[in-house]
Structure formats: C-alpha cells, structure tokens
Amino acid sequence: MLKEFALGLGDSEVNISLPEEQVIHVVEGKHADAITDVPAAVKAVLNNPIDSPPLKEVVKAGDTVAIIASDITRQWIKYDQFLPTLLNELNAAGVPDSNIKLVVSLGAHRHHTDKENVLVYGQEVVNRVQIVQSYAPASEDFTHVGKTSRGVEVYLNKHVVNADKVIMTGGIVYHLMAGFGGGRKAIIPGIAGYSSIQGNHSFCLHDVVGQGISSSCISGKLEGNNMHEDMTEMAEMLKPAFLLNAVFTPEGKFARFVAGHWHTAWLEGTKTVEEIFGVPISAKADLVIASAGGFPKDINLYQGSKTTDNAYMAAKEDGVIIVLLECRDIMEPPDFSGWFNYETLYDREVALRKAFTVPGFIALKTGIMASKVPFIIVTLPENKDFIEKAGLIAATTIEEAMAIAEQKLGRKDYTITVMPHAANTVPLLQG
User: Fold this and answer.
1) Which CATH number fits domain 2-29+282-429: 1.10.1740.10, 3.80.30.20, 3.40.50.10860, 3.90.226.30?
2) Which of 263-267, 286-290, 357-361 has the least mean pLDDT?
3) What is the topology classification, in CATH, of domain 38-276?
4) What angle do CA 145, 199, 215 make, to 5 degrees?
5) Which of 99, 225, 305, 344 has its CA 20 to 30 A from that of 158?
6) pLDDT (tens digit, 9 = 90+) per residue, 329-356?
C-alpha cells in the first residue's frame, strides 16, 4: 500500500509515493489557534503576568524605560502589531513616550535604515519613541557590568544599562545553538558588546580544537547548554524589569503571548513552542525525507540549515537524508557561502574560533553533519557545484535522490521518516 506525500520545493510541490508499512513517522507541527484580538491578548498578559506584579506596578511614573526589540532579521515577530499596546500601557502607568527608548538589538548585524525601522516596528512606534541601535562593534556604546562564572567579560549597551527599567521583547522559537530563541537572547547577543558575544558563542564549539562543535548546544536543550547558561548569567546582571515574548502558530500567526519575570515567563513560553513544534518520535529512521516547506524557507542553503539540522535529529547514524531545497539564491548570504572556501573542516573550525559568526558556525555544523550522514539535496541543476563544494550530494529530482539513497542504504527494507515542514518541526526522540 502506497502513501502519497506532497512536499514543498520553491513555489511548487513535489509528489512522492512511499510504502506505507516503511513510514514510521510523519513529523508535523500541531495545530494552534491564532489569536484574533492581538491588543487585547497583550493587555491581558501585561496585567496578569507570570512571576511578576502587573506592568503598571513594575514601572512608576517618571521612570525612563528601555524596550529591547529584535532587528529586521526577526521581522516575523510582527512588532508593529503589539508594540503600540505596550507603549499605551506604559503611558497609562505614568511613563510618557518621551521617557521611552526602543533599543534595536542588532548584536553584530548591520544598522537599520529609517525605512527598515518603519517596516519592523510600524510608523506609529517610529513617530512616538526615540529609536537607538545597539551595534556590537561600536565599543564606545558599551559599559562593563561584570564577568560570568565561565570567564566571559560582560559589556552591555549604555542606553539599556542607564535606563531605570528594562523591558525585553522578542519571539520564542527553537534555536539550533541556544536551545530556544527569545528571552535572554535580547541581552546577548542582542545588546551585548562584540567581545561578550564572541566569548559566549564560543561555547558552541567543542572544548578541544579539532573536535568541531559542542554536543550540548542544540535545538530544544537548555539544561547543560553552556551557551544558554552563560547567556542567562549575563541577563541576570542587568536585572531586567519585565519581559514580553510571543509564540507563533505553524502558519506564523500569534499563538500566545507570555509576560512577566524575564526568565520564568520566557521558560513558560518555551513549553508552548515545544507543544506546537516539538514532535515526539519513537525511533530514528534509515531514510529521512525532509522539505523546508518551500519558498522562502528554502531560498538558500543558509535558510535551509534549519531543515537539515532538524532532519539530522531524525536519522540513524548509518542512515541517509534527502532534503528538498530549491535554493534560488544559492550564494546568499556571502558571509555563509564564503565559509565553504576552506579546504577542510579543521580549517573552517580554526577560522571560526578566531572570529565567531553564526553563519560560520552553521557552515561548520553543516559540514560535520554531512561527514557523518549522506545528505542528498534536491535542488536546481545550476546549484550542483556549490552543493558539492559544501560536502552534500546534489540531485535534480526526488526520483534521482531516492535512487542515490537506496544505493547508499544497500537494501529495500529501510524505515522512513517524512518531515513536510522540517524548517519548523523538531523531532524529539522519546526515552
């Protein structure tokens, strides 16, 4: 008995029929109802927060307030839909717009243009409050606030440190290094200095040079995740007054807002992310067939790395992975594709230890995963050279990919896991 699957590739779908008895899992996110009245939902959590008095009791009349907000790389957070409500509640508590600064948590990303501020935060917010940008390499904008137990010197943005009250905002999703996004990531890398970011992110690499990456810094893992624990210490030094984070549906609409204590409210949000996007599996499969879900999630290999990472978590050590990634902009972004110019994984790792970047880390991880399990990428014919340079196997059709996979597995009685939206769904091996 054959089972049909339609998998996204760019703007189209690829159909594949698989023997039903061999398919052990179909990894899909759970349905989540979208919030219909966003301002009302935000107001409700600000007035009934987790582990904290309501926002109107946390701030007092005349306070200066710094709101930390994510940059354009997190445009999916849809700030324009909820920041006005947050500002209105601060006004109602006696904090005028003139006392509020919106701090763009660029980390080491480039500055926003004025137009991008409007695009990300909305015209109303841009008109109402002062916007300052925290750009990690501008060392004069940062002040020393302490040192973590792991030895990282902590430099944070002066605008944030000098505010009477700090409110952290963001979106919570799975994160392939920090376990989950949101929460303390507003502080580090968000508004931290460059050396602090480098020091913290280096925990994603193995303690021993040449051993690649740390096995503790992975999607969904918080306990024992050095990077996350170091981040949490850094955030604690700032003593943030309040947090407002959003969790999303598989379609990218608001599923839940959490507010209150900067750490415990966020932790509550991570549980919702796990409920929606964490999919229990009872066993790993010989063959994993994964799609990012089509464009724009498969616009390039960098965006596709969320898919390859999640697919890897569902495959046996001697298995094979097929990933559908159109990659119409295969060479974008250059700060990712350039890392594949290193001759060996060792050279890539050494360069990364000298100057850590997230694209560099993802390039290293991609290479390490591909050295352990064959990745067959169904992509555009013109991408063949780059895909192979990255250590992956290129195929132009699902049929070609299946033929290569069967040849590598060397048998017909293999188990299969299908991941139709693998960019968002994380397989969680039970037991």
Assistant:
1) 3.90.226.30
2) 357-361
3) Rossmann fold (3.40.50)
4) 130
5) 225
6) 999 988 899 999 998 999 999 999 998 9
